[in-house]
Amino acid sequence: MKEKKYCSFCGKPEDLVKKLITGQNGACICDECLEIGYDMVKEEATDTFEPVPLKKPAEIKAELDKYIVGQDEAKKVLSVAVYNHYKRINNAASAGKNKDDEIEIEKSNILLLGPTGCGKTLLARTLAKILNVPFATSDATTLTEAGYVGEDVENILLKLIQNADYNIERAQRGIIYIDEIDKIARKGENMSITRDVSGEGVQQALLKIIESTVANVPPQGGRKHPQQECLRIDTTDILFICGGAFVGLDKIVQKRKDTTSLGFGGQVKLSDSEVSYEMLADVKPQDLTKYGLIPEFVGRVPIVVSLHPLDEEALVNILTKPKNAIIKQYQKLIALDGVKLTVEDAAVREIANTAIRLKTGARGLRTIIESFMTPVMYRLPSEPNVEEVIVTSDCVTEHAEPRFVYKKSA
To answer: What is the pTM of this model?
Structure first.
């Protein structure tokens, strides 16, 4: 008669469990105990802190150079800021957050000032990619105070948690980029009698999560499912990068510096439609407050980085130089049809100049290329004898069709 086996942990016989695994020494474990053990190991693993693999500032900038053209000064400042942020996190974890240490290094969030299409979002996203940390982006214009039509501030944290595959530990060391932050500036310096639910109210709501708090985040959005169980996330180590064009801020800086003196040595005052982003390199906290950001918010973004508009040379380099340059992407796409794509230098420069005229920066480059490449990509699959497609400057300026070079018949 076969000897009945029992689980060495819970004592259940093999006929009362789904699976009983026997070891070399005769000890047995059932599927239920195995599952409990797995959960215990998994829970213990999530509690252990894995430091963020840290690169030196020069290494971070070198990686940024591979993907982003220009903005050297901004990349240096960001590289140092990000290095210090994650060095602070790793040090606090390795020291076990020693209570005897009286010096506590505070988090330094970042504010990016620059025109549309100059690379603010790309800088933040690339930094997260280099450091291999979760990243989320949000538009400040969609945010409102809780209770009003719009998006809750906590939804920004939900996006980060989702991008971290709901791993709270990883999400707590991620990067969040909030765009169009200048659009939530207070309407004027005086306190308004009416509610400013998408301006100062949003700034007040952002204060607690940008600094450090343990936030309760509804996993399905708070307004549609009020009864759901919330996720708790500590924002102390989340790096917040805010960005905006801040049109008009240069006038505030200019007025403070009083550079509009009369005489031959005086500087010409800019018109209301012109923006001097060189002037933004000298922004002070009081300028941001005068613009409409509340002092508490300004204090939580101490690192201010000014980006300049992209000139023709920078846009040409963006089109051709980076690893994932736009023209390289189209060349690879056309190569999948067995066709070579050649974009003449004059055409590249015309694409750059068109983006400057339209004031779209790098963001509008793909749209310009699509305007003359869409007909090409429509025709190519139906014409198997094409060997090369040549894009000339006329394709950009005159909307002429690119030139097709056909294979020579044998």
So the answer is: 0.74
